[in-house]
Amino acid sequence: MRIAALLPELLRHLFKKPATVDYPFKKLEVPKDFRGTPFLHPEKCIVCRACVRDCPAEAIDILTVNEADKTFKMIIHNDRCIHCAQCVESCPTDALEMDELYEISAFSRWDLKAEWEFVKAVVKLKPQPSETPAPAAPAASSSETPSGGDSQAS
Amino acid sequence: MAILKTFLYLLVYPGFLFLLVYSTFCEWFDRKMYARLQNRMGPTHTGRFGILQPVADIVKLLAKEDIVPEKADRKMFSVLPVIGLALASTAMLLLPVWHFSLERPSPNSFPGDIIVLLYILSLPTLIFFLAGWSSTSFFAEIGGARVLTLLFGYEVPLFLAVLGPAVMAGSWRLAEIAHFFQQRPLLLLPNVLGFLIAVICLQAKLERTPFDIPHAETEIVGGTFTEYSGKKLALFRLMIDVEMVAGAGLLAAVFLGGFPGGVFVGLVHFVIKTLFVIFLLSVLRAVTSRIRIDQVVRFAWRYLAPLAVLQLFIILLLKGFVL
Amino acid sequence: MKYSVPIGPQHPALKEPISLRMTLDGEVIQDADIRLGYNHRGVEKVAEGRTYIQNIYLTERICGICSHSHSTCFVQGVEKLLEVEPPRRGVFIRYLVSELERVHSHLLWLGVAAHEAGFDSLFMYVWRDRELVMDLLEMISGNRVHYAINTLGGVRRDLDEGQVQKILDSLALLRKQSEYYLNIGAHEPSFVGRLAGVGRLTKQQAVDLCAVGPTARASDVPIDVRKDDPYGMYDETPFEVCTADTCDVLGRTVVRIKEVLVAYDIIEYLMRNLPAGPVAVRTPRRPKPGEAVARYEAPRGENIHYIKSNGTDKPERLKVRAPTLGNYAATVEMLKNGFLADIPLIFAAIDPCICCAERTTTLVDARTGEEKTVSFSALRALARERWKNAPLKKDAVWPF
């Protein structure tokens, strides 16, 4: 039972630099692959709506602007987004990407919606990942693709 | 001329204005030391180095809504912070600052003033109890009971420890005690044990960790200050700061040799010595955790009081055989 | 003289709202009455309207500190229903994040317990070192809390060589700091004086009241789901179950710090033996109808998820039994014959994660004791009617 066990450590800290980062005057670097907010590369979107289906917070909407010209509008509701990046994974053409912004507050939720208007792209889907399981996994999964029906047809 | 000097003494230095400025500076110093010991920054952006932070806190509290509980006695509830601040400020007047030299003693230095000072410094504890009791809230009543229990623990060792150097100097007058130790500075060394005991007891009087049981935030919400808000709470905080300066000044006058040299040199001595005592208080605050009320009383009567008696014994031996 | 004290729902000692009504005799507690329901969000009902993939993110948000526990427990259950097994590399990465989460949760707890005891210096130091763990988690998964690294059939991200090396380097520093905290926690007299002998729960009481996690392990009951019912790769990972036999809050502190050191060993084993291969397999969207029960050792104890599927891509029923819910009965026992001053520490020692444990509340009529379940709209109508007609009451007495 030592009295004042913490004392030498405490006194040593008087001469060290504080561990606090003086935010907002100094900011920290975020690591690679930090999940910030999602944004769209409109030239790659094939309007399969996988992102709309998989988003847990219903934060992506795709509206049809003109059926004949094949123009669509995507709205990402950043006030509903939970930054899980499931949309980035579900997208078969890598059209969605996460950026590294984390200071995204605004005074009104209506300032947080991001919109893109674009023409539907015609893109070859990347080849499906191979189905040979790793040696330890017994049953191979059945091969239903996640992007449902309306992928490349219309 | 004497009247003007008295007013200057009461209102400017070492009176009210100096107290306001210096006690907030001491609170900043305490918070900054506490933070640096914990590897944090402490107050940084209000004023240069955050020096205006305690002032900002008090100004903020002055602007908040003032609520008196329904069942509480309105008059007593409101007047207690003012009386407390008055008591703590009065304690400062008895310290031997400015007019301390024995040739031209100041009017408020008289034999026995060390006892009066200790008595005035123990009255704020009664004020805390009354504040807790008149709040008629459950948490405040428990806080008030704990304040008095704490008083039974630390008051006797504090008195014994502070009176040790008085016995050695052979006088009950603060100015004479300080003068004695300025003539013979080596005699401060046998009093180190008494100094440490007095620092621990001062920590208990100021209700800081490890003795902040009466207003332990995580247990009884606010203790004696639960129902206080707005201007009354601002006055209580100011009172605690002034009490810290007065207590540190008492310890500096008795154990560290007083404040010699007239107005300006005396001020420098005062600042340096009280800051040293406050630094020790901050380190003590950072190094320990809060202990329970029954453990405090046991600790005080089992360790502190016997050590204070031992210190008195050493002083008596020294006085008998050496001096 | 007996009187009742309400601790909560709002109290500085509690991080989340819960109502503990204590009956006191002087400063000694005679009885405690726990009332839940202030944090109820209807997670189980919401889970019935979302697909399995969306539910991974929903279960993650049941709690902030033990988010990976709920997500992994759910994914384990769904993988049982889908009859897939994730590949070995995915399993290793998934439980690497589990062990890192255990470290971060125990360090958080140690800081909070020190703060409740008044020992703010230890609180600041421990949380500063916890930042190392949070940075590692951010590097692995992209976010400091709510890691979202699970997916059905494995994990979503892979680790490269540089990241593995960084984890091993940080481990060395963390290990040195944690051993220092074990020393301080065991030796600082004022801190130990607060923790020792407080909140006693004998071994028989712990077994009878179904205590889980470190609360039970500190009473010398060696239960740990990782050893009793191994999942993932825990059957081949060498580690020990940490127990203590002091049966009080000091024992729980020691158990948690020992678990942190054991977790460092597990993480080192995982990093040095990381197999090559894919990190996920593709899974079908619709599991066959059936039921699955998944168990997982969260930092607070045993976490149980029950999932029932009916062949569609949304679950029919999700039932979550969080570990804190299992510890409430033991808490009441621990509080009896304790001091008022010890309540925050005793309650904090079970590591309460109250929002994990909120389930449906039943209304009990205070006068007759009869129970009934009321729908939310009926409850709101009842409240509106009461406040419309109630005059301002002075000296209102709380009905007991």
Topology at a glance:
The complex is a heterotrimer of chains A (154), B (323) and C (400).
Chain A (H helix, E strand, L loop, with lengths): L6 H7 L24 E3 L9 H5 L5 E7 L4 E7 L8 H5 L5 E3 L14 E7 L35
Antiparallel strand pairs in A: 1-4, 2-3, 3-5
Chain B lengths: L1 H10 L4 H22 L15 H10 L11 H20 L19 H22 L3 H32 L4 H10 L8 H14 L11 H4 L9 H26 L8 H24 L5 H29 L2
Helix pairs in contact in B: 2-10, 2-11, 3-10, 4-5, 4-10, 5-6, 6-8, 6-12, 8-10, 8-11, 10-11
Chain C lengths: L1 E6 L11 E7 L2 E8 L7 H5 L4 H9 L6 H16 L5 H29 L3 H22 L8 E2 L2 E2 L5 H27 L1 H7 L7 H6 L5 H4 L7 H4 L20 H24 L17 E9 L2 E9 L5 E7 L1 H13 L7 H7 L13 E2 L6 E2 L3 H14 L11
Helix pairs in contact in C: 2-3, 4-5, 4-11, 4-13, 5-6, 6-11
The stretches of 5 or more residues of chain B where confidence is low (pLDDT under 50) are none
- Give me the CATH architecture of the domain at 34-102 and 109-122 in chain A, please: 2-Layer Sandwich
Strand content of chain A: 15-25%
Helix segment tally of chain B: 12
> Structural class given helices, strands, pairing of chain B?
mainly alpha
Number of beta strands of chain A: 5
Structural shape of chain B? globular
Helix content of chain B: 55-70%
Distance between the termini of chain A: 77 Å
State the domain count of chain B: 1
Number of continuous helical runs of chain A: 3
Under CATH, the topology of the domain at 34-102 and 109-122 in chain A can be stated as Alpha-Beta Plaits
Main sheet: strand order of chain A: 2-3-5
Strand content of chain B: under 5%
What is the H-and-E element order of chain B? HHHHHHHHHHHH
Rg calculated over all Cα atoms of chain A: 24 Å
What does this entry look like structurally?
The complex is a heterotrimer of chains A (154), B (323) and C (400). Chain A is of the alpha+beta class and 154 residues long. Chain A has helices at residues 7-13, 50-54, 86-90; strands at residues 38-40, 60-66, 71-77, 96-98, 113-119. In chain A, strands 2-3-5 form a three-stranded antiparallel sheet, with no helix packed on it. In chain A, strands 1-4 form a two-stranded antiparallel ribbon. The longest helix of chain A has 7 residues, at 7-13. With 323 residues, chain B is an all-alpha fold. Chain B has one domain (19-321). Chain B has helices at 2-11, 16-37, 53-62, 74-93, 113-134, 138-169, 174-183, 192-205, 217-220, 230-255, 264-287, 293-321. In chain B, helix 2 runs parallel beside helix 11 (264-287), helix 6 runs parallel beside helix 12 and helix 8 crosses helix 11 (264-287). The termini of chain B are far apart. Chain C has 400 residues and is an alpha+beta fold. Chain C has a single domain, classed as Orthogonal Bundle (Cytochrome-c3 Hydrogenase, chain B). The interface between A and C is large, with 39 and 47 residues.
